[in-house]
Write a structure and sequence with these properties.
globular, 8-stranded parallel sheet, TIM Barrel, 14 helices, alpha/beta
Length: 316
């Protein structure tokens, strides 16, 4: 099927097919509302939130924007039912689900009039998501930051495979940090584009300034997919990563790795700013990010770059 960005703008009632990823410790109401106000779709990342805190962020987001916004729900998290109750109770109209079986909650969410999008890392899971009734899927490739697929399929391989497997809209994610990359993803079948790392380093991101500066100082090869025995996650190399790598090299068990990871390791790095002992989750595209910008400027630059690239190719 041919890509059609109008499918995404129409589904979400937004101006541009640009979606800000729902990132733990980065995407609170300030970032989500700024992206939505700029014409994209902002997403509140609920993975780090209690029900009361999520409710607070939703209320503040509704006060800061009249535009549509979404909430990301990691389905495998404990207490997900309580987060879903908050989403339904506060009248959120769009939900992005991830890290779990979409069949568990999709019908319930849709019965409440909520549009549901599920994040997948393979065409197999895309078909399962479509069968569960979701309205669209995010095809997230190996380049993406944070938790990732075990298949290690790159975005530009994954997108056309998913596009050929489903009839619902496909949103490309992973390694997309420019308008030219958006256009390339569209050429492969993407109807929309989910951006993470650029917004993680934005002024409105709730991540620590140390983390944002580390992103802008990143170079090629500074991130690596690790902890594959647990849940694969892309991290910036630091002292904590080095201990993980050494443990994996000597054949550490899942229990040993889980103990090493501990609890709230990502909070320590991303939110508290400990660049040595924290879990620094970010995508490969971090190497191309050299400035901390307002979310509005990021959206506008992405769309202008996309239009310019499209016009340039049309003239060839």
């Amino acid at each position: 099927m041919k890509a059609d960005t109008h499918r995404i703008t129409s589904l979400f009632q937004i101006s541009y097919p640009i979606i800000q990823a729902g990132m733990v410790w980065c995407s609170g109401w300030k970032l989500a509302s700024a992206v939505s106000n700029a014409g994209g779709l902002g997403i509140i990342g609920s993975g780090s939130m209690s029900p009361d805190l999520l409710r607070e962020h939703i209320i503040k987001c509704k006060s800061a924007t009249t535009k549509p916004f979404a909430v990301n729900l990691p389905l495998l998290y404990s207490g997900i039912d309580k987060l879903i109750d908050v989403v339904v109770g506060e009248g959120v109209r769009i939900v992005f689900t991830s890290a779990g079986n979409p069949a568990t909650w999709t019908s319930h969410l849709k019965s409440k009039g909520i549009s549901v999008v599920h994040v997948v890392s393979s065409s197999k899971f895309a078909r399962k998501a479509e069968a569960s009734g979701v309205d669209a899927v995010v095809a997230e490739g190996f380049e993406a930051g944070g938790h990732n697929g075990r298949e290690e399929t790159t975005t530009f391989v994954l997108v056309p495979l998913v596009k050929a497997s489903v009839n619902i809209p496909v949103i490309a994610a992973g390694g997309i940090g420019s308008g030219s990359a958006m256009l390339a993803a569209e050429a492969l079948g993407a109807d929309g584009f989910q951006i993470g790392s650029l917004f993680a380093a934005s002024q409105e991101s709730s991540s620590h300034e140390n983390f944002k500066e580390r992103i802008t100082n990143s170079e090629e090869g500074d991130t690596v997919l690790t902890l594959k025995q647990l849940t694969p996650v892309r991290l910036i190399r630091n002292a904590f990563y080095q201990r993980v790598a050494e443990a994996e090299l000597r054949g550490a068990s899942k229990d040993e790795l889980a103990t090493l990871l501990g609890k709230r390791r990502s909070k320590l790095g991303i939110f508290d700013g400990d660049l040595d002992e924290g879990e620094l989750e970010i995508g490969q595209i971090a190497a191309a990010i050299k400035a901390i910008k307002p979310a509005k400027q990021i959206v506008e630059e992405l769309w202008q770059e996309y239009r310019t690239a499209k016009e340039r190719l049309a003239s060839v």
